[in-house]
Design a protein that fits this description.
The protein is mainly α and 307 residues long. It is built from 18 helices and no strands. It is elongated, with a radius of gyration of 23 Å.
Length: 307
């Protein structure tokens, strides 16, 4: 829409009316004053706007003006603060619908390819909150391919990568859009093995969603996975990682039983997840985990060994 080029334009352009306009003006300036206006708090600083409190919930008119600002300005600081406010409001179900009906999803989505990594992260966070709504996912799915690419090629363990993984996890809670990640499975396993604890947990959450869907089983088992994957099935691995890795194995087992894949002995390559999970080294690790000190771990291993 050919946005503002300086803070002066923004200050002038925000004089659109009382209430919501004043609120957005505070968003761009971040000054504090002593009074309050109904349920909004225009006196709040930019930092305060990120706390997601009840007072910060905007109505449709205010959201529309905020989206207009987000679409119009090129000021990185204003874009980032506006994305935070949109994201906070998208945590409320009523505003998930409102933002979609106002055409806000493409406006937010256009920011995920921004050169500024902080803006990119805030846009992903906003889309993540919006994606809780199933109807919103229909519009957000057009960004899945780009998010996958960014997750696989972006800085490892970064805030942007984690934000992208969270969005993909939300988008795969149901089976509707999981197929969009089929070409990224090998890459996701690579991120899983290279990442730190937080990254490992988030990738495993994503893989767990897909592992419950029999339609994704063949793709998961055919993914090329380094043999170091089996190190996740070590008794010294953090419980939150070990349990999820075991649940991944259990879910795949359940899908194999449903689809009869084991009886068919599908043709997977030697470097695939299939050969890792159903090879002798993994079987040895499962036998060792039977004696794990944690009852939840032992229960999962027992279920896996019943296959």
């Amino acid at each position: 829409m050919g946005g503002a080029r300086n803070a002066g334009w923004v200050a002038a352009g925000l004089v659109l009316g009382a209430g919501a306009c004043y609120y957005v003006y505070r968003l761009t300036r971040g000054r504090r004053r002593g009074h309050r206006e109904q349920r909004l708090r225009p006196s709040k600083s930019v930092e305060d706007l990120t706390n997601g409190s009840y007072d910060d919930v905007l109505n449709a008119e205010q959201l529309q003006k905020l989206l207009y600002l987000l679409e119009s300005t090129e000021d990185p600081g204003i874009i980032e603060r506006a994305l935070v406010t949109v994201g906070n409001n998208a945590a409320f179900s009523v505003n998930q619908v409102t933002i979609r009906e106002l055409g806000g999803i493409p406006i937010v989505g256009s920011k995920i390819d921004h050169a500024n990594l902080s803006i990119k992260e805030k846009a992903l966070n906003a889309l993540n909150n919006l994606s809780v709504n199933v109807e919103n996912q229909i519009k957000i799915k057009v960004y899945v391919s780009q998010v996958c690419e960014d997750v696989l090629s972006g800085p490892l363990d970064s805030a942007v990568q984690l934000a992208g993984l969270r969005l993909l996890t939300n988008m795969t809670v149901t089976n509707d859009h999981q197929h969009l990640l089929s070409g990224s499975l090998t890459g996701l396993f690579r991120v899983l093995l290279a990442g730190n604890g937080s990254t490992k947990v988030q990738v495993l959450k994503l893989l767990l969603n897909m592992s419950e869907n029999p339609a994704m089983t063949e793709g998961l088992l055919g993914a090329q996975v380094d043999s170091s994957f089996l190190s996740l099935y070590d008794g010294h691995v953090a419980k939150e990682i070990l349990l999820r890795a075991l649940m991944l194995f259990q879910n795949i087992n359940n899908c194999l039983k449903k689809e009869g894949y084991l009886a068919l002995q599908p043709n997977f390559t030697k470097d695939s997840l299939f050969f890792l999970l159903y090879g002798e080294e993994c079987a040895q690790r499962m036998r060792a985990l039977v004696f794990h000190h944690d009852a939840d771990v032992k229960e999962k291993v027992t279920l896996i060994q019943k296959l």
